[in-house]
Design goal:
Blueprint (H helix, E strand, L loop, with lengths): L1 E5 L5 H12 L8 H8 E9 L2 E10 L4 E9 L8 H15 L4 E4 L6 H6 L13
Parallel strand pairs: 4-5
Antiparallel strand pairs: 1-2, 2-3, 3-4
Length: 129
């Protein structure tokens, strides 16, 4: 059984490895605990026993907007509903933290997943500084 929880304690090395499996290796180790404490409204983690198999982070603007980032599920656990459960848990946490809006950016191939989580497409722009 997969346990999905809001703001669980996370092992930094395990989170870094999971993140790298979804997004590629970071050029330098990420200080996850410090990053989460400084910027996050909340995060959700999914565990299969003691193993971290999913993660999502909600970064806040210190106002009413939350931004869903770093959504990742272990390769061998994908397409099982864990991603949707992570997003729903993060959504609940964001609402409790005072967010009125939850934003997500994604590549076109992830549109069906975002829609299955309840996101409505909007026009947006992105600029690489």
């Amino acid at each position: 059984m997969i346990d999905v929880r809001l703001r669980p304690e996370l092992d930094e090395a395990e989170l870094e490895a999971l993140h790298a499996s979804g997004f590629g290796p970071s050029p330098a180790p990420v200080p996850w605990r410090a990053r989460l404490e400084r910027f996050s409204v909340g995060w959700a983690g999914a565990h299969d026993g003691d193993r971290l198999v999913g993660f999502v982070n909600v970064v806040g603007d210190d106002g009413v907007h939350g931004f869903l980032v770093d959504t990742v599920v272990a390769v061998d656990h994908r397409r099982t509903g864990i991603g949707r459960r992570l997003v729903e848990t993060a959504r609940t946490g964001a609402r409790a933290a005072g967010c009125h809006w939850l934003h997500v950016d994604h590549e076109p191939h992830l549109t069906p997943f975002s829609a299955s989580c309840g996101f409505t497409p909007t026009a947006a722009g992105v600029l690489r500084p």
